[in-house]
Amino acid sequence: MFDEIDMIHSYSRADAIEDGNLVDVSERAEQAAGNMMGFKVPVAMTAAAWEALVAWHDGTNSLDALLEEEKRLDDVLLVALEAAAKERNERCINFIVDVMEKEASDSVVVPKHVVMIIGPGDTPEPVITIMLPEED
């Protein structure tokens, strides 16, 4: 139907990662729940999902924030892996991640709704994207 010459605009997954619209978490995802049980395909999170679920902004030094973000990312990936195991044949999986958020004088746990989609990436090979429900 269309030839390559008909292409008006293309925005690849690689472009989105390079631009910061997607955060590649594949390396960490391979190790979710241990090396033998992690994700077997590339995994990325939208920048909005990263900000809502992983990013840590509490004024601590950058090393503490990095360590906190690693723990939060591990939590997201573990819950995503468990959800994927329960819904093995689904292309789109909804799940909830409990996220610790700082409030004025205390920390509270806030349940956040998350969507995980598996499908082809820049090639026909499958990839996973973790996003917020309002993203599409």
Helical coverage, percent range: 25-40%
Count of DSSP strands: 5
* Overall mean pLDDT: 86
Question: What overall geometry do the principal axes of the alpha carbons give?
Answer: globular
Taken together, the total number of domains comes to: 1
Q: How is the largest sheet built, in terms of strand order?
A: 1-2-5-4-3
Distance from N terminus to C terminus (CA atoms, Å) equals 26 Å
Low-confidence stretches: none
Q: Report the total helices.
A: 4
Q: Sheet bearing the most strands, described?
A: 5 strands, mixed
SSE order, as H and E? HEHEHHEEE
Q: Give Rg in angstroms.
A: 16 Å
User: Structural class, from secondary structure content?
Assistant: alpha+beta
How large a portion of the residues is in β-strands, by DSSP E? 25-35%
Explained architecture:
With 136 residues, the chain is α+β, with helices and mostly antiparallel strands. The chain has one domain (4-131). It is built from four helices and five strands, in the order αβαβααβββ. It has helices spanning 13-19, 26-30, 47-53, 62-86, and strands at 22-24, 43-46, 92-102, 107-120, 126-131. Strands 1-2-5-4-3 form a five-stranded mixed beta sheet. β3 and β4 form a beta hairpin. The radius of gyration is 16 Å and the shape is globular. The relative contact order is 0.17. The model has no long low-confidence stretch (mean pLDDT 86).
